[in-house]
Design the sequence.
């Protein structure tokens, strides 16, 4: 089992080093790409419409601009603390009358992350 852990660590280190080297080697290109994306988003936002540019045999770029939050209507909310402080019989009655529905809640899934930080030479 120790050799499997050592092998994984070696593979992790090897991949991480490759990632750092690629990031360093192409930092200028990545920065330019982000600048271009920012400018394209700004154009789409100013035009008020999304657009797509297609290049035969090469690929395509789809751009959508920023948009403000849109009002969708008024939804009733519940004061959870007040509800939980009610006597149990009252809570049960509200649930029984379909005024309150008890639904399970979940946190958002976390898919992990990889962050690369380059040190100044």
Sequence:
């Amino acid at each position: 089992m120790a050799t499997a852990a050592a092998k994984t660590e070696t593979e992790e280190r090897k991949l991480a080093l490759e990632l750092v080297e690629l990031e360093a080697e192409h930092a200028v290109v990545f920065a330019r790409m982000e600048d271009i994306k920012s400018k394209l988003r700004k154009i789409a936002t100013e035009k008020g419409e999304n657009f797509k540019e297609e290049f035969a045999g090469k690929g395509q770029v789809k751009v959508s601009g920023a948009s403000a939050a849109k009002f969708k209507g008024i939804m009733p909310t519940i004061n959870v603390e007040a509800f939980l402080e009610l006597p149990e019989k009252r809570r049960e009655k509200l649930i029984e009358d379909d005024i309150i529905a008890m639904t399970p809640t979940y946190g958002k899934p976390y898919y992990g992350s990889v962050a690369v930080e380059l040190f100044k030479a």
